Amino acid sequence: MRLALAALVAVPLVYLVAALIGSLVPVNAGWSEPEAGTTIYLADNGVHADLIMPVAAQGLDWSPYFPAGDFARQLPNARWIAFGAGEQHVYLDTPRWRDIRLSTLWRALAGGPRVLHVEYVDSPAYALRQIRLRPAEYRRLWAAIRSELELDPSGRPRRIAHPGYGPADAFYRARGKASALRTCNSWTAGELRLAGVKTSLWPPFVQGLVWRYRPAGG
Questions:
Q1: Backbone angles phi and psi of 152, in degrees to 5
Q2: What are the φ and ψ backbone dihedral angles of 58, each rounded to 5 degrees?
Q3: Could you give the count of Cα atoms lying within 13 Å of 57 in the half-sphere of its Cβ?
Q4: Tens-place pLDDT, residues 136-189
Q5: Rounded CA separation 5/20 (Å)
Q6: CB burial of residue 106 (10 Å; 0-12, 13-18, 19+)
Q7: Collapsing DSSP states into helix, strand and coil, what is residue 6?
Q8: Which helix (H) or strand (E) holds 178?
Q9: At what angle do helices 135-148 and 184-195 cross, to 10 degrees?
Q10: Whole-prediction pTM
């Protein structure tokens, strides 16, 4: 019994220590933000971060991948698109925080299919952080997110039959799994790492990710 209790205490403690270390240790440590380039944003709700990108920039356009027909009502003036990744049951079964169940949390911790949440937004003004990217960095980020999507034989992302949280968002099948080790925030850090941007080695919590970047509007 004592060993079991010690393990119950030790496991979350080890996880928190590893999260702290992973959030402080940088990757792409030599990167610096350019004076000019394409700006992307990080939206942070205190738990989860979304990447917000232009719908079209640097010769790359998301709209053919996420056409208006995939959404209940695509915003007519939307020039921005937000991406988030997470465990399927957490995303699809918990439109509100109060909908979370112990079974959902267990699936998120143990691991389940990853999905992408995609939303057209008319402005990134709600974002808390911003990052300016060089053209090559932006293109690498675009390609990294594109490679996460499961595609059908025609090359279209596989949309999940779910109404979404609002009129301008939808869910899509993604590659890999999400778990306590591969959280939504560590996914975002991984995409930034592939772009060549300085980011945290392993930030399972949103605070360990966003602290590195400039406040939006700054």
A1: -85, 175
A2: 55, 35
A3: 23
A4: 999 999 999 999 999 999 999 999 999 888 889 999 999 999 988 899 999 999
A5: 23
A6: exposed
A7: helix
A8: strand 169-178
A9: 140
A10: 0.91
